[in-house]
Amino acid sequence: MLTIEGLYKTYGKQMAVDGLSLHIPKGELFGFVGPNGAGKTTTIRIVCGLLKETGGRVLIDGKELAKEPDAVKRCIGYVPDFFGVYDNFKVSEYMEFYGSLYGISGEECERLTTDLLALVNLSEKREEYVDSLSRGMKQRLCVARALLHDPALLILDEPSSGLDPRARVEMKELLMNLNSMGKTIVISSHILSELSEMCTSIGIMDHGRLVAVGKIDDILNGGQSSEQTREKQIAVLEVSREHHEDAVTRLRQFTDFSIESVMENKIEIGYEGDEVRLNELMMEIMKQGVILSGFYQKRENLEVKFMQLTGSGEDTEHEA
Ligand SMILES: Nc1ncnc2c1ncn2[C@@H]1O[C@H](COP(=O)(O)OP(=O)(O)OP(=O)(O)O)[C@@H](O)[C@H]1O
Ligand SMILES: [Mg+2]
Q1: I need a surface site. Which of 133, 270, 276, 290 has the fewest CB within 10 A?
Q2: How far is residue 129's CA from residue 138's CA, in Å, rounded to a whole number?
Q3: Mean of pLDDT values over 65-71
Q4: d(CA 11, CA 176)
Q5: Which domains are present in the chain?
Q6: Which residues, by Cβ under 5 Å, contact ligand 2, an ion?
Q7: 291 contacts 237 by C-beta, under 8 angstroms
Q8: Which of the ligands is closest to the CA of residue 18?
């Protein structure tokens, strides 16, 4: 769907996007994550044809933005990070205005407005002034207007910033709903936990570069690379109170893993290897008479991984 090849953007001496390459397949709900100034907005504005790149190319469905700008722009619905001021517009007029920019008018625009306002849950606000809407409602209105020309790709720049928790959930549900209806969606954010709940894959950006890209689970696990599996992994063994003491005693006799911490009904062990290795260890542990009520691999939380990858965190210890 969206392909970015070797994209560069400089503002004077400032490098905002530094050789970014990325492919987002059709049907993805892709999260673009990065700290302030990482280059997310710059990248998005280039992809939407609002800013000229310094180098590299953007292709949508194989069509190059620089060569067929109008055709490419028609495939995109863009929700900017900053919502303008619309003093004298009612919601219906706002939709009409944006419809006219795409050559949609009259009954067709009316019908689309009805459908889209229903989709973003703003039907009863149709005759209200845009400026009287809450921030969350304005954001949803922005999504509705970005869908007027039925773009295959919807790009949203920080759609949740400034929203309260309830409005965030509504936005998340709306995007997941649109994705299930077949829209490919790209969303930027620096709120990772939110992205991890809705996105099918993410790209982590820092200083204009992609430092990690893929499925969230793969990023958390460090992908399949053998280098990563040589790092110490932590597994959590769940043990009932009655078997706890016995389990600790037996586990201390093993040499192929270390006991990292002992809690009331959990024991954490450190080992090297992948999930297959973890399963082998568990078989061995149970063979030796340790009674477990469950076990799982402990995952570093996303924020910690993010801090490590973007080099913006001082504390790179494992999650608490
Ligand atoms: N119009 C501009 N003129 C000069 N420098 C700019 C301009 N726009 C962005 N930059 C610089 O480019 C870099 C990337 O900015 P960008 O807005 O793309 O980041 P971002 O990831 O969207 O950040 P945020 O999370 O704060 O929205 C920053 O260093 C910023 O200072
Ligand atoms: Mg931005």
Answers
A1: 276
A2: 11
A3: 93
A4: 35
A5: 2-217 (3.40.50.300), 218-320 (3.30.70.920)
A6: 40-41
A7: no
A8: 1
201 Cβ contact list (under 8 Å, min separation 6): 24, 28, 30, 31, 213, 214, 215, 216
Residue 165 has pLDDT above 90, yes or no: no
Describe the crossing of helices 135-146 and 106-119 by its angle, rounded to 10 degrees.
Answer: 130
What is the pLDDT confidence band of residue 169, given thresholds at 50, 70 and 90? confident
Residue entry with tokens 């907005």: 41
Provide the β-strand partners of residue 32: 188, 203
In the predicted model, what is the mean pLDDT of the chain?
A: 86
**221-239 exposure pattern, b = at least 16 Cβ within 10 A, e = fewer:** beeeeeeebeeebbbbbeb
* pLDDT classification of 204: cutoffs 50, 70, 90: confident
Does any ligand 1 atom lie closer than 6 A to the CB of residue 39?
A: yes
pLDDT tens digits along 218-233? 776 665 444 444 567 8
